[in-house]
């Protein structure tokens, strides 16, 4: 089973690019944009191409063999 990291948010949602940065999976917003647009990022098992996608509590992001779950 893959190791899952937890990202905690205070607001109703966080944008996908911000999740990747907070989790340390990318170094910058530009890197996040490229990885997302290339189709390397999944949200809840589906490829997501919009870095502005709103990620809510309970969503699971997958990138580069790593899983990140958003909780509050």
What are the defining features of this structure?
single chain, 72 residues, alpha+beta, Structural Genomics Hypothetical 15.5 Kd Protein In mrcA-pckA Intergenic Region, Chain A, five-stranded mixed beta sheet, two-stranded antiparallel sheet, 36% strand
Can you characterise this structure?
The chain is built from 2 helices and 7 strands; from the N terminus they run E-E-H-H-E-E-E-E-E. Helix 1 (16-22) packs across helix 2 (29-37). The protein has a single domain (4-71), classed as Structural Genomics Hypothetical 15.5 Kd Protein In mrcA-pckA Intergenic Region, Chain A (Roll). A hairpin with a 2-residue loop joins strand 6 and strand 7 (66-71). It has helices at 16-22, 29-37; strands at 4-8, 13-15, 41-43, 46-47, 54-56, 60-63, 66-71. The strands form 2 sheets. Strands 1-7-6-3-4 form a 5-stranded mixed sheet. Strands 2-5 form a two-stranded antiparallel ribbon. The chain is of the alpha+beta class. The model has no long low-confidence stretch (mean pLDDT 94).
């Amino acid at each position: 089973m893959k190791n899952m990291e937890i990202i905690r948010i205070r607001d109703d949602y966080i944008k996908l690019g911000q999740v990747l940065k907070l989790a340390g999976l990318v170094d910058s917003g530009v890197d996040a944009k490229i990885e997302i647009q290339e189709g390397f990022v999944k949200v809840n098992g589906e490829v997501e191409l919009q870095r502005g996608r709103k990620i809510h509590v309970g969503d699971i992001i997958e990138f580069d063999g790593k899983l990140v779950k958003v909780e509050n």
